[in-house]
């Protein structure tokens, strides 16, 4: 990884922590897959866009309905737990 890429990732992580009021280090708890049978959805203010079969890093299990996740483009957001499948 280049120095420029590292700085960009650090900046994205700081913005995530500020936007979601997340304290502490960002640790991946597990990885889960978006259900291939679900409909694709566009992201919203704090929701992550969903693509069928996409593998997401789980950052935090926030409640029974939503999970805080990160996608392969290092974007963060909430995902409905109902559309997630364990790997």
Give an overview in words:
The chain has about 90 residues and is an alpha+beta fold. It has one domain: SH3 type barrels (Roll), CATH 2.30.30. About 20% of the residues lie in helices and about 30% in strands. The protein contains 1 helix and 5 strands. Strands 4-3-2-1-5 form a 5-stranded antiparallel sheet, with no helix packed on it. It starts with a helix and ends with a strand. The mean pLDDT is about 90. InterPro entries: FYB1/2-like, hSH3, SH3-like_dom_sf.
Q: Portion of residues in helices?
A: 10-25%
Please give the domain count: 1
Structural class: alpha+beta
Main beta sheet, described?
A: 5 strands, antiparallel
CATH architecture: Roll
Form type: globular
Spatial order of strands in the largest sheet:
4-3-2-1-5
Oligomer: single chain
What is the string of SSEs from the N terminus onward? HEEEEE
Strand content: 25-35%
Count up the helices.
Answer: 1
What value does the average pLDDT take? 88
CATH superfamily: SH3 Domains
GO biological process, one term: integrin-mediated signaling pathway
Keywords: Phosphoprotein
Protein name: PRAM protein
InterPro entries: FYB1/2-like, hSH3, SH3-like_dom_sf
């Amino acid at each position: 990884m280049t120095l420029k890429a590292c700085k960009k990732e650090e900046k994205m992580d700081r913005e995530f922590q500020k936007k979601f009021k997340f304290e502490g280090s960002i640790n991946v708890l597990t990885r889960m897959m978006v259900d291939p049978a679900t409909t694709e959805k566009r992201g919203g203010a704090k929701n992550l866009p969903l693509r069928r079969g996409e593998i997401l890093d789980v950052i935090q299990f926030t409640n029974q309905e939503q999970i805080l996740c990160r996608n392969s483009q290092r974007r963060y957001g909430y995902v409905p737990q109902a559309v997630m499948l364990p790997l």
